[in-house]
Design brief:
Distance between the termini: 36 Å
Low-confidence stretches: none
Strand order of the largest sheet: 2-5-8-13-16-18-19
Number of helices: 8
Strand content: 15-25%
Number of strands: 19
CATH architecture of the largest domain: 3 Solenoid
Order of helices and strands: HHHHHHHEEEEEEEEEEEEEEEEEEEH
Helix content: 25-40%
Number of domains: 2
Shape: globular
CATH superfamily of the largest domain: Hexapeptide repeat proteins
Structural class: alpha/beta
CATH topology of the largest domain: UDP N-Acetylglucosamine Acyltransferase, domain 1
Radius of gyration: 22 Å
Largest sheet: 7 strands, mixed
């Protein structure tokens, strides 16, 4: 088996120093109990999108500022935008109010020049925001760009969790990610479902990904599913029911196709054994 650990990279000294001091200022600002998160978001985004120009208030007040630019400036302030979760009936406005500016900052940062594909700075920036957004965030959280959440405050994250690009973490009913969980690009983790009869009949159910779980490319885990420890949901699979520990599930709907070779003896539940239990005459 060929092992390919990630390479270590170093930025030029000037860039590394600037990024370090900027990230420290972001962390210090959010750690300040007096921080107005709406203003913090607005000023941070203004500096990212309009570097070296007049102040936000000056630009907005300037009669020469076009309507298009004025609309763009207003959108930097989270109080001037609506996000999809705000339309959900079961939202807790009190819990969501301090989270919304940080969700908007997260999304808008990812679309900026600094945030887009800038891996090192992006991961560290999102890690700072995560501890102020999530219900719980463990150590060494690593999140790539264009990941989206619902409420944010219903998300629990363990240690050494990795979330790759364009992942949806719908924590509307609650999501728990155990230690060392890895979620690959374009995966979707849901915690709410709609009635097939009435679209507005919504059921929320907590979804759990236990320690060591891997959710691979374009896979989907539906609301209320418990993905057992060290198991895997394969590419493009849709997990509609619980996944047993150490099992690899593939397909739509996802079904167990094998047991990982590192499974403890006590959890060995091979496909042949499962078939024999289902069809004892075989």
């Amino acid at each position: 088996m060929a092992l390919h650990p990630l390479r270590k990279l170093a930025l030029p000294a000037t860039a590394a120093d600037t990024y370090e001091r900027w990230l420290d200022s972001i962390e210090a600002g959010l750690d300040d109990p007096q921080c107005d998160r709406n203003l913090f978001c607005r000023e941070t985004l203004y500096a990212l999108y309009y570097p070296g120009t007049q102040t936000y208030d000056e630009a907005l007040a300037n009669p020469a500022t076009s309507l298009t630019t004025r609309a763009a400036l207003l959108a930097l302030d989270p109080r001037n935008v609506t996000l999809e979760p705000e339309y959900y009936n079961e939202i807790d406005p009190v819990q969501y109010a301090p989270i919304k500016p940080l969700l908007w900052l997260w999304q808008s940062f990812d679309r900026s020049l600094v945030g887009g594909g800038n891996v090192d700075v992006g991961v560290r920036f999102r890690r700072i925001l995560a501890k102020h957004i999530f219900k719980r965030c463990g150590s060494n959280f690593k999140c790539f760009q264009f990941v989206e959440f619902s409420f944010g405050y219903n998300l629990e994250v363990g240690d050494n969790v990795v979330v790759h690009r364009h992942v949806l973490l719908d924590d509307r009913g609650g999501i728990e990610l155990g230690n060392r969980v890895s979620i690959a690009d374009y995966a979707n983790i849901y915690s709410h479902t709609h009635s097939i009869v009435n679209q507005v009949d919504v059921t929320n159910a907590k979804t759990i990904l236990a320690d060591g779980v891997r959710i691979t490319y374009h896979a989907t885990v539906l609301a209320g599913v418990h993905v057992g420890e060290e198991s895997m949901v394969g590419a493009c699979a849709v997990a509609t029911r619980d996944v047993r520990p150490y099992h690899v599930n593939l397909g739509i709907p996802a079904k167990s196709v094998r047991v990982k070779p590192n499974a403890p003896d006590a959890t060995q539940d091979t496909l042949d054994t499962a078939r024999r239990r289902k069809n004892p005459g075989e």
